[in-house]
Amino acid sequence: MRKLVSFMHISLDGYAADEKGGMDWILVDEEMFDYAGERTKKSDTALYGRVTYQLMESYWPTAADQPNPSKHDIEHSQWYKSVEKVIVSKTMEGTQVPNTTVIRENLPNEIRHLKQKDGKEIILFGSPTLTRSLMEENLIDDYWLFVNPILLGKGTRYFSNLENSIKLKLMTSNAFQSGVVCLHYEVDTEK
Length: 191
Prior knowledge:
Layout: E1 4-11, E2 15-17, H1 30-40, E3 43-49, H2 50-59, H3 71-82, E4 84-88, E5 100-103, H4 107-116, E6 121-125, H5 128-136, E7 142-148, E8 156-157, E9 168-175, E10 181-187
Parallel strand pairs: 1-6, 1-7, 3-4, 3-6, 4-5
Antiparallel strand pairs: 2-8, 7-10, 9-10
């Protein structure tokens, strides 16, 4: 069975977005791009909520074609165009974008089916609402949390209103020069 891996930038106090939905407080640099790039190579499916997908689709298909693209822009653009993209949305209709499907209903069953298909890992970028839904169903296997050195005080909480606790095991931690710390947790399945 394939793993479902969640990638999320959060503030030190646990927010995925500020009170206006903004994410301009997130620190990213080449060091983090290289680190995350090694992780994305282990996946062949990208899972997004509608809003995150629209942000990604507006940039990544042509990022490598822009004047003076960075190494990360070139590599991630190639990866993005090659992977299967799965969007979870109740409002979005089907899409004509290659390698892209939309899940509109029966989310837990559809994700279980996706995890059972042959392939590499499934990576979930951002999408805090979708992530919380998948947490409730115990469908996420790994959490990669990029903790940014900021206290927002208000905004969209990453972990909120969970009905069940989820025990995690810390696998690795990596501190970047920017002050961001990546914490990689696996769900602890030992009871």
